[in-house]
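<amino_acid_chain>
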Amino acid sequence: MSHLSWQEFLRALVDQYLSGADDRDLSAVFGGKEVDWSGVVKSIDLTNEYAPGVSVEMDDPKITLGDSKKLIANNVFLNVDGAHKSSWADTQINERIAFSARIRRVNGPFPGVRLSQFESEPEVILLLGLEEAKRTD
């Protein structure tokens, strides 16, 4: 299941969700998988002590879930470690880029994949832990 396109990943994620998977289940299925995606850079902070990285706007999936809720999955944060910082050196805000990363596995109480929702709200927000991110174009 590694190297799914962004849209394929979201469809597989929604299929798991609609089958009753929770965050831990989703993290077990997708955690550790490598991805090759693209998006538009919205912010870059490679000097942050705790979370150096790049915020990327992804193509809006426009997916409605079976319970009349809409999946919000239009932004990911790429954690960039020291070994991959140089690949981001010339990156500009609003630039469309290609990147590779690994979806985080469960780390203690923190899932690598989380669908955040409130019963009274019509949105389900995808929170995705991506690490070892490097620019590939």
User: Anything to note?
Assistant: Residues 6-135 form a domain with the OB fold (Dihydrolipoamide Acetyltransferase, E2P) fold (CATH 2.40.50.140). The first helix runs from residue 6 to 18.
